[in-house]
Amino acid sequence: MSRHKPSAVPPPGVRERLLDTADQLFYKEGVRAVGIDRVLAEADAAKASLYLHFGCKDELIAAHVERRVAGARSQIEAYLHDTPPGERALRFFDWVVDWVKSPDFRGCPLQHIVAEISDPKHPARLAAARQREWLHARFLEWARAAGAADPGATAGALLVLFDGAVAASEQDGPQRARNARWVAGQLLSR
Amino acid sequence: MSRHKPSAVPPPGVRERLLDTADQLFYKEGVRAVGIDRVLAEADAAKASLYLHFGCKDELIAAHVERRVAGARSQIEAYLHDTPPGERALRFFDWVVDWVKSPDFRGCPLQHIVAEISDPKHPARLAAARQREWLHARFLEWARAAGAADPGATAGALLVLFDGAVAASEQDGPQRARNARWVAGQLLSR
DNA sequence: ATAAATACAGACAGGTCTGTCTACTTCCGG
DNA sequence: CCGGAAGTAGACAGACCTGTCTGTATTTAT
C-alpha cells in the first residue's frame, strides 16, 4: 500500500499508524484534550479503520498506555543490562536523569492517566496498575541485590523517589531528577 | 436568600456554592471530565450566575486551583505553627501522611492540572506554578533551619519526596507517604 | 411599599465529541 | 483477471460541550 512516499520499506499498517499518532498526541496534550478526529487527521486514517482496530476510544487509550509501559520496560532493561545487580537501583536513576532531559519529556504517562481517568476499572488504569507492580518488583529485587537492610521499605522509598523525580521534573525542570538520584545514592549507601 | 433549608446561618452565595461544587468535582474526576452543566446541576445554580461570577470555564478551573492552593497553605501553616523551625521539614511529612489517609484523597491537584492542561500559560497552570515556588521557598527555609549542609539540594530533595509521596500514594496506597517520611528522616538526620 | 441587587430557568447557537454505517478504492495473491 | 483483504471518504445520529441571552423571581435595603 503506497500512500504518499514511495519507499523501500512499506509504511506501517494503519493500526500502527493510528497508535503511533495517538500515543504522541495523548502524551503531549492529554487523553481527554485530544479527540479521535484529531488522531485521525494526523494519522491520515479513516474512522472505520480506527474502530476496526480499536473498538472505542477507551481501547485506544489503553493501547497507548500499554505502548508506553512496554517502551519503558525495554528501555530500562536495556539500560541496566550490563549493570551488576547490586548497582542497578542507583543506575536506574541515571536513566531517569536522562529521560527527563529528553525533548518530548512531559512527565509520567501513568500519573497522567490516573489524573485524567478516575475510574480504576478503566482498561488504561488497569494497565497502569500492572506497571506499578512491575516497578515495585524491580525495586525490591534491586534493593535486595544492593544489600539493603530493609528491602521492602527501600523498594517503597525508591518508588517514591522515582515518582517524585518525574512529577517534580515535569513541573520544576530536569534538575529534580538529579535531586532524586542524590537521595537514592544516600539511601543506598547506608 | 433561603433556598431549601431554613437555617440560622445564611447559605453561601451562589459564587461560593459554585466554587465549592466545582472544586470537589474537579478534584474527584478531573477538570475535563466534568462539564459545566454538571457543576450547575450539583450546585443548583443558574448558568448566568456561573458566567457572571466566572467569565468562563477556564476561570472556574483557575479558581479551583487557587482554592486548593490556599487551603493547603493554611493547613500546612496551622499544622506547623507550634513546631520549632528546625523540625518543620520532617513534621511536614507527618502532615502528608495524614493527608493521604483522608477519605477524599486523590493525589495532588497541581499534578492533575499539569497532566490535564498542557498549556503552561493557562491561568490554572500559572496558579500551580506559583504554589511550586511557595513550596520551594518553604522547603529551603526549613532545610536551613534544620542545619542542612546543602540547603539548596535538600530543598530540592524534599520537593521530590513530597511529589513522590503524593503521586505514589495516589497509585499504590497511603503507605507510600510513610516511605517518604522515612527517607526525609534519614536525609535530615545527616 | 419600592427599587436595586442578586439569582434564577432555560432557550438558543454553534461547535465538538464518540460511535455507526455505507459505498467505494486500492492492493495483493492466486 | 478476479476475489478477498485492508483501507478509505465521509455522512449521519445523538449526546455533550461552552458560552450568550432574555425574561422572571427572590432577596435585601431604604
What's a concise summary of this model?
2 copies of one chain form a homodimer. Chain A has about 190 residues and is mainly alpha-helical.
3D architecture notes:
The structure is a homodimer of 190-residue chains. The first copy, chain A, is an all-alpha fold and 190 residues long. Chain A has two domains: 11-55, Orthogonal Bundle (Arc Repressor Mutant, subunit A), CATH 1.10.10.60; 68-188, Tetracycline Repressor, domain 2 (Orthogonal Bundle). The first copy, chain A, is 71% helix and 0% strand. The first copy, chain A, contains nine helices and no strands. The radius of gyration of chain A is 19 Å and the shape is elongated. Chain A starts with 13 loop residues before the first helix and ends with a helix. The model of chain A is unreliable at 1-9 (pLDDT under 50). Chain A binds a DNA duplex (30 and 30 nucleotides) through α3.
Entry keywords:
2 domains, Tetracycline Repressor, domain 2, 0% strand, Arc Repressor Mutant, subunit A, homodimer, 190 residues, mainly alpha, DNA-binding
What's the layout of helices and strands?
Two copies of one chain form a homodimer.
Chain A: H1 14-29, H2 36-43, H3 47-53, H4 57-79, H5 88-100, H6 109-116, H7 123-145, H8 151-172, H9 175-188
Helix pairs in contact in A: 1-2, 1-4, 4-7, 5-8, 5-9, 7-8, 8-9
The structure holds a DNA duplex (30 and 30 nucleotides).
The CATH topology of the largest domain in chain A is given as Tetracycline Repressor, domain 2
Q: What is the CATH class designation of the largest domain in chain A?
A: Mainly Alpha
Taking pLDDT < 50 over at least 5 consecutive residues as the criterion, the unreliable ranges of chain A are 1-9
Biggest sheet of chain A, in brief?
Answer: none
- Which two chains form the greatest contact, residue counts included? A-B, 45 and 45 residues
Specify the overall morphology of chain A: elongated
* H/E element order of chain A: HHHHHHHHH
> In the CATH classification, which architecture of the largest domain in chain A applies?
Orthogonal Bundle
**What portion of residues of chain A belong to β-strands?**
under 5%
Percent helix range of chain A: over 70%
Number of helices of chain A: 9
Determine the CATH superfamily of the largest domain in chain A.
Answer: Tetracycline Repressor, domain 2
Oligomerization state of this entry? homodimer
Number of strands of chain A: 0
